[in-house]
Amino acid sequence: MKFSTFYFSGTGNTRWAVETFNAIISAKGHQATMVSIDFGEKLTDDQILEMVRAADGIGLAHPIYGGGLPPIMSAFIDRLVRLLQPEKLDRKTFVINTFGYVNAFGPNEMKKMLADSGLVLSGYVNIQLCNNVNPAKPVDREQLHKRMAKGEAELTRLADRLLAGRKRIKGHGPQLLIGAMIRKKVPDAIARHYQTLGVHAETCTRCMVCVDNCPTGSIRFDEAEGFTFLPGCTACMRCYNGCPTGSITMNGTYDDPQEVPRYLGPVE
Q1: Taking the chain, what is the end-to-end CA distance rounded to the nearest angstrom?
Q2: Which of 43, 103, 223, 241 is surrounded by the fewest CB atoms within 10 Å?
Q3: Exposed (0-12), middle (13-18) or buried (19+): which is 51, by Cβ within 10 Å?
Q4: Region for 79 from its dihedrals, namely left if φ exceeds 0, alpha if ψ lies in -120 to 50, beta otherwise
Q5: Any stretches that span the bilayer, and where are they (predicted)?
Q6: Which pLDDT score, from 0 to 100, does residue 218 have?
Q7: CATH numeric code, 193-250
Q8: Distance (Å, rounded) from C-alpha 35 to C-alpha 9?
Q9: pLDDT, tens digit, for every residue of 25-73?
């Protein structure tokens, strides 16, 4: 069997989860590919359709922001549904969520998003790792490694069920009761996030890592105007966590990376 996963990862959690899932699938003698939906990848409609047509199962992988999806992933799923509606394809679909605190989104919300696309939800799992949003709270590496082990076990169960033609649907529970309330507030906060970002001129080396790595192309640099953060920001924290000198500020505050270590994903 062949599985193809479209994924978005802010600073590494979801990428690790998909890479782990693909390694499990490959070890079982099957094929697994993954493709980022970042702006820089410039996926064409034909490329997306070709991946879906060639696969036995389609994966969607992303972090959870409060009770919803990152805007970049929501937009991609809307695009995917529009492309597939005329195709009349029938593909098993699995979703890999990563989160830091709680996932208040749930499989029923995903089913609504996939309606009329031919993508049938056969797998939905939640992988708890570490939150990459709170710079004031350092990552507990021991806790992270325990969660990675649990995540790998859950991804193994997902792979086994999909290969056996069975469903693996997790994510139902009392946490979903607060999801609707959270989803009313989170979109506005995300939409305004770009307004909180800035650059600490004293430490910035103008290496352009933030510009080059922004998944939505929402950071621009001009010699006269400096750095500009744009409304397309998906609030992934990649610029803040990935800056080599820790020079991205939030709300005008510079966090010394020696005092506030950045989160670069579930790595040793």
Answers
A1: 31
A2: 223
A3: middle
A4: alpha
A5: none
A6: 97
A7: 3.30.70.20
A8: 11
A9: 999 999 999 999 998 788 999 999 999 999 999 999 999 987 789 999 9
Q: pTM of the full predicted structure?
A: 0.93
Kindly list the distances between the CA atom of residue 188 and the CA atoms of 68, 195, 214, 239, in Å, as whole numbers in the listed order. 12, 12, 20, 20
C-alpha to C-alpha distances, 80 to 6, 26, 48, 119, 254, nearest whole angstrom: 10, 26, 8, 10, 39
* CA–CA distance, 32 with 2 (Å, rounded to integer): 6
Superfamily of domain 2-179 in CATH is: Flavodoxin domain (3.40.50.360)
Length in residues, the chain: 268
**Range list for CATH 3.30.70.20 in the chain:** 193-250
Q: Are 91 and 52 in contact (CB under 8 A)?
A: yes
